[in-house]
Amino acid sequence: MTGAVETTGEIISDDLLFADESTDEAALAALRNPPWLVLIVDDDHEVHAITRVVLGDASFEKRHLRFLSAYSAKQARALLAEHRDIAVILLDVVMETDDAGLTLVRHIRETLGNQQVRIILRTGQPGQAPERAIIATYDINDYKAKSELTAQKLFTATVAALRSYQHITLIERGRLGVEAVMDAADHLFEQASRADFLRALPERMAALLPVAGSVLLCVGAPDGAPDGAPRVLSAASAGGEPLDAPLPDAVMRDVRAALADGRSRWGDRHGVALLRSRSQAPHALCVLADASLPEVEQRLIELFCAKAGTGFDNLHLVERLQEAQVATVHALGKLAEYKDEVTGDHVKRLGRWATAIAHELRARDLFPDELDEEFCGMIGLASVLHDVGKVAIPDAILRKPGRLDAEEMRHMREHAAIGGAILRDAGGDGPRNCLSMGAEIAESHHERFDGGGYPHGLSGDAIPLSGRIVAVADVFDALLHRRPYKKAWEIEEVLDLLRAESGQHFDPRVIDAFLAVLARDGLPLVA
């Protein structure tokens, strides 16, 4: 080893201290092939010196050795806490105590939980630490008497330990990588929209990279595009690198080739893997890194892309189901509109108000257990179904130009329970959807906060939140517009009634949110 300097228990090469800082290739080579860390633990300074001389020029897999020195078990513990990637420990048994080395082994395996580092026990007193007993009792990987440890045997034992460490760390990296890919895939599958999915893809991949790098999601150019260059749909960086720089020519060629033939490409500092989907055009995930990606990382990237391709297909199926659900809701809404000529425009306005109120309540951090993004995105469509039960009400009652008598009112009030029953059967027992929320709204939007409503006489928070929101929006819009049995009210009359009924007919929190929405957004939503 050339010109070694010892500082804080470790050996640093003079060549590194005085190297030309402009030598980018040397720095890049060190980044690509970092040295193996070898910890020498021995209270004999001469053992440290001899070990460095014997192994100073050794290398394995084009990676040299970097030595750390500890002269007691206590110093070794400090270095182990500081350096988590030590590959091999050359460990003496007898140091500050007769069993200091053996106690350190137990600390490494049991306290630190470090099962990867390879431990070669070296002892000058083999009789004090018999090999058979030590091998059987302690989790060490080799046992050598210093008297028999020639230069060749030391080299052989060290390289064998490094090979074993490499295999173990690759297996562990693969295991942890698969777990991380599964977690990332689960996160992707939680995305509710195509835009969110495309944005999350490179973000999750960048978070999985072991080194800083950038990830770009690319798709082929549209037919007839003048340059035919792939388009970048989204990008993310694990190290803060700028993402707007043009891709190098070699990377662009590999992206084009991968999109054309469906095969991954692995370059000097980049990789391109394909996302295959039955429902989408091919997409390519381009990873830019500071060094070549190891084979285990390549396999993990391809696994991630395979899971993401499945996510594409799942998202497509979800979108189709959502489209079918929206079509079903609108069809049922049209059915109610056919029976009630005022329903069409009314439900459009009602949906806008209900959505705005839900978002305002969420912004105020009210009802956090109920008001999530899904609720806010669903209530507008579900509110379309609030009066679907009117299909069962005779036209003579539904379109009567005057007030209803007691018997007619009894029949009219049945529409709430009828609508709830129809939609509950259609919505099923699975996760919340527009039909199941529509059932809540249909059945509860005529309940009163003070318990005087129908069909069940519910009060307070026993009334579903969706019903309480739609109740405010429904009464507001119904009073503001002409009906066969009444003229339109003035806006101030309507607002005065809502304020007066806060806490009686309506949930006061919903009224406050509604008034805030109206003050902020004005009357454009009324029309």
From TrEMBL:
User: One GO molecular function term?
Assistant: phosphoric diester hydrolase activity
The UniProt keywords, alphabetically, are: Phosphoprotein
Q: What InterPro entries does the entry give?
A: CheY-like_superfamily (IPR011006), Cyclic_di-GMP/3'3'-cGAMP_PDE (IPR052020), DUF3369 (IPR021800), HD/PDEase_dom (IPR003607), HD_GYP_dom (IPR037522), Sig_transdc_resp-reg_receiver (IPR001789)
Pfam families, per database record: DUF3369, HD_5, Response_reg
Which residue ranges does the record assign to the Response regulatory domain? Answer: 37-161
Query: One of this protein's GO BP terms?
Result: phosphorelay signal transduction system
The 4-aspartylphosphate modification is found at: 92
Give start and end of each HD-GYP domain: 321-527
The family database entries (SUPFAM superfamilies) matched by this protein are listed as:
CheY-like, HD-domain/PDEase-like
**Transmembrane segments annotated in the record for this chain:** none
Superkingdom, according to UniProt? Bacteria
PANTHER family per UniProt: 3'3'-CGAMP-SPECIFIC PHOSPHODIESTERASE 2, CYCLIC DI-GMP PHOSPHODIESTERASE TM_0186-RELATED
Stated name of the protein: DUF3369 domain-containing protein
Q: What is the lineage of its organism?
A: Bacteria, Pseudomonadati, Pseudomonadota, Alphaproteobacteria, Rhodospirillales
